[in-house]
Design a protein that fits this description.
It is a single chain. The protein is of the alpha+beta class. The protein is about 50% helix and about 15% strand. The strands form 4 sheets. Strands 3, 4, 5, 6, 7, 8, 9 and 10 form an 8-stranded mixed β-sheet that branches. Strands 15, 16, 17, 18, 19, 20 and 21 form a 7-stranded mixed β-sheet that branches. Strand 19 and strand 20 form a beta hairpin. The model is unreliable at about 395-400 and about 405-410 (pLDDT under 50).
């Protein structure tokens, strides 16, 4: 308590020092605590399920695209009936976004996000319902009684958290649907399986011959038996697939890739978020280095006090304890400020609901994060006070008294320690800046990618009518009337429709040329798009050869297809593809070739796509309506919604977004990581600049008499400025060299996150080195100018 009171008195005597030290540590501890909350939620915290380490994810091995990664219902049934490694095996319907129900009957029509799951999905995960029950056998049959389980968020939003909703009926797509249960708050389906979207209901998906005819549609989720491992389950399913080949006659690949569910959900985010954690550690380390420098300078200014106390019999370990107590008080006060800031920052990040990043909305400063914050605070306090404490006990008593009474300059050991700390923080800042620079350059290169379509000046509405159309002619009349109504809205220049937009859903169909003999494992596949007659023109996808669809096309005309350049190169590399027939939709003649479009992500090259006129598809499906206009989105959306409501009063019109959001969603994880790392790098650069300024300013203060002597014997102001600034640049130059070397080693970790830029990009390395030297020059020039204005008479008298 005596040490505590003494340390508090010392800090109160130097409020400026205390403020800077506490603010620096509050920033470091706050950022560290917040980032731990985020990293724990996204990659460290166990999945919110019973014994999640026994859960595995099963997908096909056919390649990219949902149709290649998913499995048919009959194959899944064969797994479920014949496997020996699982306690239970469940499935989720991967194409649920194609079949989104519209809820009517209470308030405005609302389009919901739903996912089809097998009846044992929640029991397999080990997730108990908050209210109600799981789907029963009758509801899980094909076209069985409609039933739904509500998500906790939807239950709260639409039904006010009323438990009595279980057992009631709601109207989905015109059908009375029984609400059989409500999910618990702890299990957020979309945070795990559809990050960034809001899944409102789960519905039963039947494993039946009818659903097997849908094709590859299912992802599997299994709970391993006690003692069983992933390798055993893989071997089990591989053997079953060999048997199923003999009984299930269909094209395509029988495959099963088994991996831990945790890896499937968030494995690809471990590296980037651990990189962010490392960046935060660097920021905290730089903050500690700055505070150590401040404390070391403060300890040097108290040499006379230390010498007197040693002469009066104070023990050296007592001085160490007092130095550490002072630094721990600073760290503790910084934590008291930093933790509330961390709570606010973490909540702000959780609200982002970044598309594609799993469980980000669960990020919070919980008791575990607080415990880590306490540990970080303690270690920080000890680390910051350690060097000044060592300096206090290593100085011999006689030298301490002599330096305190006859010198104003610091000892060589203290000066060396301060300079070494500056070199260390510059090196850490350099590593961070290079990493951030590479990600920023990479992100910039990604945004410059030619999408293959124009994303600006267009809005998207989902058209998913609850009407029951009796024929294709009714569907055509409906869409034609809607296009005409939209084109009548002032300012609208083009309207197009497609069941699938770029950078979204990515099912695949076979796309072989009729008559060609392809090996089964090399049969061409493409991403199909069922489109309206003016979709390609509205999206501004360029025509390369042939022609677009037009309004004159009739449902009973010869089937036609337009393909992308990438698909043309694959299926007809040696001859003109126009006029050739693709074996799809009963045989479709290629009438045009258009530019390739990025279908999966911006990182992936434009793939093989084929566009089919929806009037010839014979199926009714929800459509995405693209409206291109030069008007601002806010005024346009109001007029379009009014026109849609007048055309079809039962049509939900609340869900619309700019076409450019497709790009934003696709790049959201990379944008989040780049911005966070850029922010941490800016903090590191600021702290490094403050550290350089502090050391140089302190050195100038200590060398006032020396500078006065130099000026008195003929040195001019430029000589003094060069001396001070040159000394600072030497320290920073050494730190930059060490930092560039460290960055060259550590950027290997970033290679998987970099697109279109070398991990050793000379512009990034040289640019950040120049930036640090420029900052060092500015930080050194301020005290250097002050030194150049020293009055030699005043300095020598002092």
């Amino acid at each position: 308590m005596s040490d505590l009171r003494f340390a508090l008195r010392q800090l109160l005597r130097a409020p400026g020092f205390a403020f800077v030290a506490i603010a620096t540590l509050a920033l470091g501890i706050g950022v560290c605590t917040s980032m731990f909350g985020v990293v724990r939620a996204v990659v460290l915290k166990p999945l919110p399920m019973h014994e999640p380490d026994r859960l595995v994810w099963i997908e096909n091995t056919g390649g990219e695209g949902l149709s290649n990664r998913t499995t048919r219902a009959d194959t899944f049934k064969g797994w479920r009936d014949g496997q020996q490694s699982f306690e239970s095996l469940a499935a989720v319907f991967a194409f649920s976004d194609y079949l989104r129900p519209t809820m009517t009957g209470t308030g405005e029509p609302e389009r919901l996000r739903s996912y089809g799951v097998t009846d044992n999905f929640l029991p397999t995960l080990g997730v108990p319902l908050l209210f109600g029950r799981n789907f029963d056998a009758a509801e899980s049959r094909f076209q069985g009684p409609p039933a739904a389980i509500l998500s906790h968020a939807f239950w709260q939003r639409r039904f006010g958290g009323d438990p009595a909703v279980v057992g009631r009926t709601i109207t989905l797509n015109g059908q009375s649907t029984t609400v059989v249960g409500v999910l618990p708050r702890s299990f957020d389906f979309d945070a795990l399986f559809s990050p960034g979207s809001e899944v409102d209901v789960l519905t039963p998906f039947a494993i039946s011959p009818e659903t097997a005819n849908f094709g590859n549609t299912l992802f599997g989720i299994g709970r391993l038996k006690p003692g069983a491992g992933v390798a055993q389950a893989q071997a089990d399913l591989d053997a079953l697939n060999q048997q199923l080949r003999k009984t299930i006659t269909r094209g395509g690949r029988f495959g099963a890739a088994v991996q831990p569910l945790d890896t499937a959900i968030r494995g690809r985010f471990r590296t980037p978020f651990l990189v962010l954690a490392g960046a935060v550690f660097c920021v905290l380390a730089i903050a500690c280095v700055n505070l150590s420098n401040l404390l070391l300078a403060r300890m040097n200014s108290r040499r006379q006090e230390l010498g007197i106390r040693l002469a009066l019999g104070a023990g050296r370990w007592h001085l160490v304890r007092q130095a550490l107590t002072e630094s721990l008080i600073l760290a503790g006060t910084g934590a008291l400020i930093g933790v509330p800031l961390a709570i606010w920052a973490t909540a702000a990040l959780a609200r982002l609901r970044t598309f594609g990043v799993p469980m980000l909305q669960d990020a919070a400063v919980d008791p575990v994060a607080l415990a880590v914050s306490l540990g970080v605070t303690t270690v920080t306090g000890l680390a910051c006070g350690l060097l000044p404490a060592v300096y206090a006990i290593r100085a011999p008593q006689a030298r301490t008294m002599r330096e305190a009474t006859h010198q104003r300059s610091a000892g060589r050991s203290a000066a060396f320690a301060r300079n070494a700390l500056v070199v260390a923080e510059v090196a850490l800042a350099c590593v961070l800046l290079v990493g951030a620079g590479l990600l920023m350059r990479s992100f910039s290169a990604l945004l410059r990618v030619d999408l293959g379509f124009a994303a600006d000046d267009a809005m998207v509405w989902r058209i998913d009518s609850a009407r029951q159309f009796r024929s294709g002619a009714e569907v055509d009349t409906y869409f034609s009337g809607m296009r005409a109504r939209m084109l009548a809205v002032p300012g609208v220049t083009a309207v197009g429709m497609s069941d699938t937009l770029p950078l979204g859903r990515n099912r695949t169909w076979g796309a072989g040329i009729r008559g060609e003999n392809y090996p089964p494992e090399r049969y061409p596949v493409a991403y199909p798009r069922l489109v309206g007659p003016t979709y390609l023109q509205t999206m501004r996808i360029p025509l390369v050869a042939g022609r677009y669809f037009d309004e004159a096309f009739a449902p009973n005309a010869a089937k036609a297809v337009i393909i992308s350049e990438a698909l043309a190169r694959e299926i007809s590399p040696d001859r003109d593809p126009i006029g050739r027939v693709i074996d799809v939709n009963g045989g479709s003649t290629i009438i045009g070739v258009v530019g390739s479009v990025h279908h999966g992500s911006l990182e992936e090259a434009g793939g093989g796509e084929m566009y089919l006129d929806h009037r010839q598809s014979g199926d009714w499906s929800a459509m995405e309506m693209v409206v291109r206009s030069s008007r601002d989105p806010q005024s346009l959306s109001a007029d379009i919604r009014a026109a849609l409501k007048a055309f079809d009063p039962a049509l939900p019109t609340g869900e619309f977004y700019p076409l450019s959001r497709l790009v934003d969603d696709s790049t959201a994880p990379r944008r989040l990581i780049t911005r966070l790392l850029g922010g941490f790098s800016a903090m590191a650069l600021t702290l490094a600049a403050l550290g350089i300024y502090g050391v140089i300013a302190y050195a100038v203060t200590q060398r006032t008499q020396e500078i006065g002597v130099r000026i008195a014997i003929g040195a001019n102001r430029r000589d003094v400025l060069n001396l001070i600034v040159g000394g600072g640049l030497k320290l920073v130059g050494l730190g930059v060299l060490l930092g560039l070397g460290g960055a060259a080693i550590l950027t290997r970790v970033l290679e998987s996150l970099i697109y279109g830029v070398s991990a050793y990009d000379p512009l990034v390395f040289a640019g950040n080195a120049a930036l640090l030297l420029l900052v060092a020059f500015a930080a050194s020039a301020i005290p250097g100018l002050r030194a150049a204005r020293v009055n030699p008479t005043t300095a020598l008298r002092g």
